[in-house]
User: Fold these one by one.
Assistant:
Number 1:
Amino acid sequence: MKVKYTLFIVAIISLFISCSDEDFSTSSSVSPLYFSVDTVDMDTVFANVPSSTRSFWVYNRSQNNVRLSSVRLVGGNQHGFRVNVGGTYLSAESGFQTSDLEVRKNDSVRVFVELTSPKATTEGMTLIEDKLVFSQLVAMEQRMLLRARSWKARQVYNLRIRRDTIISGESPIIVYGDIRVDSAATLTIAPGTKLFFHDKAGIDVYGRLLVKGTANANVTLRGDRLDKMFSYLPYSRVSGQWAGIRIYEHSYGNEFENMDLYGAFDGLRIDSSDVSRPKLTLKASTIHNCQGYGILAEQCLMEMQNCQISNTQNDCVRINGGKAALTHCTLAQFYPFATERGAALWITFDKYPLVTCLLQNCLITGYANDVVMLGKEEKEKGVLITFRDSRIRMPKIDLPYVNATFDNIVYEQPTDTAFSPKNTFMTFDEKNLYYDFRLKKGSGAINAGNALWTLPTDRLGKLRDAKPDLGAYEYAE
């Protein structure tokens, strides 16, 4: 019933929009109607989960009123479509149709469509179609095609992991509430698993989390909206869709590999802990488009290899003390939804002591002139941070910074167009908010790494050659 009320209220509002000032006339004529779209395509929806609302306009561009003898949903309730025409819901009681609807001359009627596709019985996607038939008094019919691809999905609610558990499956899993991994349990997410998180849902790790994707079967963690915010902007490119992952104080030995996480608030939050015990190993993974931090690591032992952390409103990577090592990582700060954005990398040692932080063969860039922030200089602490064989968008430091060393660094300058993102990355589409941070042909990051620190394969499992490229990706023709 709630869905019906939504359609009813929205449709009533549309009536006020579409009303003209002329008096209502009961005269009618047969004239073709015009539609704002030729097909209502719902894109992809989860089976048995209500979709968002689509709408279209029906125009009468003639100089006569047009009376429709009926507007009928051909499939009735067989396919799960729900339709409201000009304020009238096509219900089962009315036979899924409305009669004697008049579209006045030079006026329009708005039609709203929603879908809850039937529970799927087969894996993968199923094409669902129905037709909306507009019939006039003298045997004139016009049809609107309603179409969607229904994806079989499993739904879980407030899932609590109390013993060692493996999550796997070909079908997507929609998560409502939180997944909580208890302190005595290990949760393993198998290759190719796709988790779609509802608003504010996330993963809380008190025990251990193993994300075990492969180069050919990444684990995907994202929001559950499959529709679009605007015609050019799917929700998959919108940040803040779900809560992200939090690793709590007494959780150790977490391993994430070949993971694609995007659209969260904070991608990954790591609480302070014993820095002598490995907290997180992150390999060949992407954290992209977060409304908070990409990674916020508080005093822990963390290692990152072949990782892309990109486009976050706060810092892409914030390291507050502890011990960290980043090899062949791309940190790209081009967050599009706010003009004030964090750094690509921020390393501090005022809240928690920093043991060491090493970055090598990395590509660190962004919109700002300086995308690397370092803690306040403390001479008595000596060298804590080492940057080597990397490219960084920051001014070259004239006077030594006593807590960091910079060895064989290429400093990006805003005035040098060769370092621009469009000359560095495969795709940098600011209009449609689509980014592919693989390297573009001619990029200065190609062959710029040091073979001494190289990794055998890149983010996508491609073999690196004797002259490795900077960042997470090895260039391929």
Number 2:
Amino acid sequence: MIAMRVGIAPLRSLVQRYVGKRPITLLWSFHVPTERYFEGEFKDLAKREATFAYHSQVGRLTKERLATLLTESERVRAKVIVVGSAQGVLAIEGALLGLGFKKRQFIDERLTI
């Protein structure tokens, strides 16, 4: 799961529903550190649940950064849910395609006004 800024809200619900039932990697990017309103919750969950991995960062996730965070197994088998601005979602999907993911692996939610 990849969230950009407020895209974390719907993914938080999915994490709560499926944690411990299936492996989850959650990546969350935001503009400023004060936007980390669920940081403690996700870090605690990652400590308690072996099948839950969490990474966050200020600024956009680049192809290079994604390459370090995602395993070869995830590249081949994972279903990737991406939530954020339309521009951000398309950029992330482009980076993932460049890392060997297939378009059929994506579920995306482009937040628009």
Number 3:
Amino acid sequence: MLTASVLERARESAESLMTDECTVVRPGEAVTDPNTGEVKPTSTQVYAGRCKVQTSGGLASENVEGSAAQTMGAVSLVWSLYIHFPFGTMLRNGDLVTVTKSANPELVGRRYRMISPSLRSRGRRPAGGT
């Protein structure tokens, strides 16, 4: 049986693996500078802290039927990437993640757009999910 204390220990264990750090901003409406006429995007920071950037652990290939790549016999290599956040972090599709600290120097400064934040981070299961 999952008790509150078991869940708390499991969450603490998961967070101990989050050795990367990132900031997440939510894009807002563009605004026009009345003096210059320049249109600038706005955003609001919605998270800053621990995270874990992880690949799915494998390489997949993708050929879209009828695409030029398929016609030429090419294979497009695709890596699935996951970014784990502490339980309760409220994210949405379109939020922008910037890695600010990582043991992997190739990740620092990388920006990613959230396309499918898990409802599990909000404490709910996705509809029809496992």
Number 4:
Amino acid sequence: MPQSVPTFAELLADTSKSAVHLETRDVYAVAEEDTDFANFRAGKGYNLDDRSSWWTPFHQLVSEGVARGVSVRRARVVSEPVTEYIRYEHAITPQNLAAGEDVRWLPRSQASDLLLPGNDLWIFDNRAVKFGIFTGDGGLVGHEMTYDPRIVGQVADAVAAVWERAVPHKEFQV
């Protein structure tokens, strides 16, 4: 029987302390970002002050979680020189910050001695992990969940090691 995987909204709603995201890919090919990425490639930016032009349901969920006292953090492990997609992510990260996320970056060259999970993931209250499974080209295949305390602990330790070394967004240059 296929595993039922809760949505991000459901998981965040059930979170009281922390939601931590680890991203380890240099390219993503997620359909809902196609237009924004194309605009970035064409040199079109966004106006952070015009929130209605970029605020999404995701930003709203994060903002509401942070207002409830949930710490929302994101760590990105990236190759250098960075890809065009990572430059795009860096350019739109102020949107995440405006929603209340704390975002850090770790050059892959500084992660060689860390044991990293094989997939991107979210950790919710150190009790549940939602893995994102991607194709080699960056397309999202699906998600897997685990509540196994051993796996959650290993993943949380790995992400904590990344977070400790990572550079805050405002200090990371692309």
